[in-house]
Specification:
This protein has about 270 residues and is an alpha/beta fold. Helices cover about 35% and strands about 15% of the residues. The protein has a single domain, classed as Rossmann fold. The chain has helices spanning about 20-25, 35-45, 50-70, 90-95, 110-120, 135-140, 140-145, 170-180, 200-210, 220-225, and strands at about 75-80, 100-105, 125-130, 155-160, 185-195, 235, 240, 260-265. Strands 1, 2, 3, 4, 5, 6, 7 and 8 form an eight-stranded mixed sheet that branches. The chain is globular. The N and C termini lie far apart (about 50 Å). The relative contact order is 0.15.
Length: about 270
């Protein structure tokens, strides 16, 4: 295939990427044949996965609007993926926020390259190549330090990413490191794949596909997700199904029950 102008020359177009597969689930156009083939294999056994991806994006929009209403103006989107409709800076603009600051962080070269291309002329935004699993390295990036003031509250967004971080890499410590960098009044916004019941046969097949992929998926229960947040204060309603976190009239139809994820927002006091 012809390489699109937004795809870096060193990216393997034949290897599926989590960010690009997610973009495909959302109906985006920044994905390749390998990503679409993998996504279609998953969708064949569990069609509700696409609905879960859209539910995650809707949760992100609601959480950003809620925190903006509380006065938070700084957002660090970790594992931000491919830019699609409903990005954080767009949510802030739609809410009439003109002084927001947003940094997008991802380790996928395509996600980073395309983010930089479309945000080059957008004030108050920056794009950083970094691995969210290394908080100290991410937080030391000059683009982040130049744009965000860590003496003021920051919202750390970990939306649909920690289920790719295995227990041996201590995801709770990763969350704690980001939270520790924020001033009181900072928040962690988190969504995660998982469920509090046995897997259905379809879910087992889909999970097996991800377990064999370059980025295996780890499912965690609501209790395990809450534990990732340590001593942060969970905002009501706590850890709930993604589509149940403060739903509003703009919420899409919830997943049909075959795909389950949880969502939570927590505050640093």
């Amino acid at each position: 295939m012809d390489r699109p102008s937004w795809a870096p020359a060193d990216v393997d177009l034949d290897r599926p990427s989590v960010a690009r597969v997610y973009d495909y689930y959302l109906g985006g156009s920044h994905n390749f044949a390998a990503d679409r083939a993998f996504a279609e294999q998953v969708l064949k056994v569990m069609p509700a996965v696409a609905g879960l991806a859209r539910s995650n994006r809707a949760f992100l929009r609601r959480a950003v609007r809620e925190l903006a209403a509380q006065g938070v103006r700084q957002f660090l989107d970790l594992g931000s993926g491919i830019p699609t409709v409903g990005n954080v800076h767009e949510v802030l603009t739609d809410a009439g926020i003109t002084d927001g600051r947003v940094v997008y962080v991802d380790h996928d070269p395509v996600a980073v390259a395309h983010s930089r291309a479309i945000l080059a002329e957008v004030p108050g935004t920056a794009v950083v190549a970094g691995d969210l699993r290394s908080p100290a390295e991410v937080l030391a990036q000059p683009e982040i330090r130049d744009l965000l003031d860590f003496d003021r509250p920051v919202a750390f967004l970990l939306v649909a990413v920690l289920h790719f971080v295995p227990d041996e890499l201590r995801p709770a410590d990763i969350v704690a490191a980001y939270a520790a960098a924020g001033a009181p009044g900072s928040h962690v916004v988190l969504s995660h794949a998982g469920l509090d019941r046995p897997l259905t046969p379809a879910e087992e097949k889909a999970w097996e596909m991800y377990r064999k992929s370059p980025t295996p998926l780890i499912l965690r229960t609501n209790e395990q997700v809450a534990a990732l947040l340590g001593d942060l204060t969970l905002l009501p309603p706590g850890v709930v199904a993604t589509h149940l976190w403060r739903p509003d009239g703009d919420e899409e139809s919830p997943p049909d029950g075959n795909a389950v994820g949880s969502a939570v927002v927590a505050r640093k006091d």
